[in-house]
Design a protein that fits this description.
Layout: H1 14-18, H2 31-60, H3 68-84, H4 87-97, H5 105-118, H6 126-144, E1 149-150, E2 153-154, H7 157-166, H8 170-181, H9 184-203, H10 210-215, H11 222-255, E3 264-265, H12 288-295, H13 297-310, H14 318-323, E4 342-345, E5 352-355, H15 362-381, H16 396-410, H17 413-418, H18 430-461, H19 469-481, E6 483-484, H20 500-504, H21 510-531, H22 544-554, H23 562-570, H24 577-593
Parallel strand pairs: 3-6
Antiparallel strand pairs: 1-2, 4-5
């Protein structure tokens, strides 16, 4: 997960997604505009860093009853918002953009980024902006400071996850799943308030609603974005339908349930939100958890760094290890921390950090490679050639695509063999390996493109009433994923809010869906055209040619149009063909296994 500033970071990517022109503008930089940009950047970088430091403290040191972190975070974010959304900034930027056609390309991109940012905190809605910032800080503190309990015993989210991955007792599984959703009772009213405040903030500069505002970052209308997400669901649906049928029957057998349910009970699955089912499958011959436990948590992080260094990237700066929060808070620490992995570009320059709770298992092994993908992306474009205002991914999905792709590459058999995490001579069932991967990547699309994107669309665009939050969430869970709650869930709950992105990375979850299409597209290109290997069995380690390709893709940040950058790199526009091709061998196997079983999802997804 990438770290998103509540005040500004979305603006960094604006023109990476909305300007379809290549760099055909050869106009000389305008001195007056440059003076304005230089002054803006000096003030902005200082305020951005102060905001990041306050946000970091709020996420890494949460003490029950202590309101100072929230207070300092609010003040820092208010200061940043006041500057970026000031009337003077908006007026000057608009004035300069009247002559956009004669401006230097990078100057125009930066001005557009400034104006897009201003819409997130305009001075014309100063009171609303301050209320939103305060509400966001409070919502974050409530979410990550929540005391999860099973019975009367306090548990961590790692404890809950371990139960859902490993426990066969359905009563204990249900208790753990229920515990993971209790936080929604405290967050529901906060989400309702935040929705209103976010909408009112961007409406002050002419956007219809907050969802439309975020979508515009891609240079797309809401209808176009929803159509793209529905296309992804339709494309993976035949395989998802086979996976859904397979998992219903296999889990019923595992839990000793004689009547196979038509929809999957949420507490049967190994993930709190049902977005990743991969731990259901164990690939014989590969016991990463055991191998990694022997290595220890610190080895996971250092090995992830070694992976990137082997490709030709620089070692991580010492400050990364000095300043990051990489491991779980000690049980007697007296504070809690956000346990959701994230990467932070603190100052948009050299201060890069990661917030994780690494323990030595297979999931955190993949996550460390993913998060360092963000870190190396930050480092690649933090150069004089990329202005601070354009130090973001080519679009928001690119950041996730790179991280997820490197996580995938790090878990493929040839690389695991080289690391001696599995024996070189081990025989593995490649179909089962592919099944495990599909239960992560294919299963994710109906959750991200379906449940999350459609829920937030309704939340912001349609002003979904608070007393319908839970009903709508579970309507989409059943429609798009074929998942139902263990027992009826009334409107005293708000199960959507247990997902951190709903609270503090709002109206952007389609980023992750698009990133999956991008990751397979880029991975397929690397495998076939650089490594000359099967995309299902690659070993990136030590490939300087792969590192050069990636660095060229990363180093431009948001200075170039993302569509053209992708086409130049892979020869194609964004599509899901590579993803479908990757998993195609699995269809024959699943159809054979599912013979005689009842399919309970429709042949095609239903969107109305």
């Amino acid at each position: 997960m990438k770290k998103i500033s509540t005040a500004f970071l979305a603006a960094l990517l604006f023109l990476g997604g909305c300007n379809n022109a290549k760099k055909e503008n050869n106009h000389a930089p305008n001195p007056e505009v440059q003076a304005f940009l230089d002054d803006y950047n000096t003030k902005y970088l200082k305020l951005y860093y102060q905001s990041s430091l306050a946000e970091w403290e709020s996420n890494t040191h949460i003490v029950e009853g202590d309101t100072m972190n929230a207070y300092h975070t609010r003040l820092a974010n208010e200061a940043l918002a006041a500057f970026t959304g000031s009337k003077e900034v908006i007026e000057k930027t608009r004035e300069f953009l009247k002559n956009k056609n004669v401006l230097d390309t990078l100057q125009a991109k930066q001005l557009e980024a400034i104006l897009y940012s201003a819409a997130n905190n305009p001075a014309t809605a100063e009171k609303v902006v301050k209320q939103r910032i305060k509400a966001e800080a409070l919502q974050t503190e409530r979410l990550f400071g929540y005391d999860y309990k099973i019975g009367n015993k306090s548990v961590s989210t790692n404890d809950i996850d371990n139960i859902l991955k490993n426990e066969n007792d359905l009563l204990l599984r249900e208790a753990a799943w229920d515990a993971s959703k209790e936080v929604g009772k405290e967050l529901k009213s906060g989400l309702d308030q935040l929705r209103t405040l976010r909408n009112e903030t961007v409406q002050a500069l002419g956007y219809q609603d907050y969802f439309s505002y975020q979508v515009s970052d891609y240079g797309m209308s809401v209808d176009e974005m929803m159509a793209l997400n529905r296309q992804l669901i339709e494309e993976v649906w035949p395989l998802y339908r086979e996976l859904h049928t397979y998992v219903r029957y296999e889990l019923a057998k595992k839990y000793g349930v004689s009547t196979v349910p038509k929809m999957i009970p949420a507490h049967w699955l190994p993930n709190r939100w049902g977005q990743d089912w991969s731990s259901i499958i164990n690939v014989e011959g590969i016991d990463l958890d055991a191998a990694l436990e022997a290595k220890g948590a610190e080895w996971l992080v250092k090995q992830a760094e070694n992976f990137y260094v082997s490709l030709g990237f620089d070692p991580l700066p010492k400050s990364f290890y000095d300043s990051s929060s990489l491991y779980p808070a000690p049980a007697d620490a007296g504070y809690k921390k956000n346990n959701h992995a994230s990467a932070w570009h603190m100052d948009l320059q050299q201060d890069v950090r990661s917030l994780m709770s690494v323990i030595p298992n297979a999931e955190w092994y993949e996550t460390t490679h993913h998060e360092l993908g963000h870190i190396y992306y930050y480092m690649s474009y933090s150069t004089p050639e990329v202005p601070p205002l354009l130090r973001g991914g080519a679009n928001r999905a690119f950041h996730e695509a790179i991280g997820s792709m490197m996580g995938l590459a790090a878990t493929q058999k040839p690389f695991l063999t080289e690391l001696e995490l599995i024996p070189a001579h081990v025989e593995t069932d490649e179909t089962i390996t592919l099944l495990k991967e599909a239960l992560s990547h294919i299963v994710f699309i109906p959750f991200s493109s379906g449940v999350m994107t459609h829920f937030e669309h309704d939340l912001y665009l349609n002003n979904l009433p608070q007393d319908q939050f839970n009903a709508k969430w579970w309507e989409y869970k059943e429609k798009f994923q074929g998942i139902v709650p263990p027992t009826p869930r009334g409107e005293e709950f708000a199960d959507a809010t247990s997902k951190t992105h709903i609270n503090n990375d709002a109206a952007q979850y389609y980023d992750y869906a698009l990133s999956y299409a991008l990751l397979f597209q880029i991975h397929s290109h690397i495998a076939k055209n650089i490594l000359h290997q099967d995309p299902r069995a690659t070993n990136y380690f030590g490939s300087k040619a792969t590192g050069e390709f990636l660095h060229k893709l990363l180093k431009t940040g948001a200075t170039e149009d993302w569509r053209q950058l992708l086409k130049d790199a892979t020869g194609e526009d964004i599509n899901a063909k590579a993803m479908l091709e990757y998993f195609q061998p699995l269809m024959k196997y699943l159809k054979e296994v599912n013979k005689g079983r009842e399919y309970t999802l429709p042949v095609r997804p239903i969107f109305n």
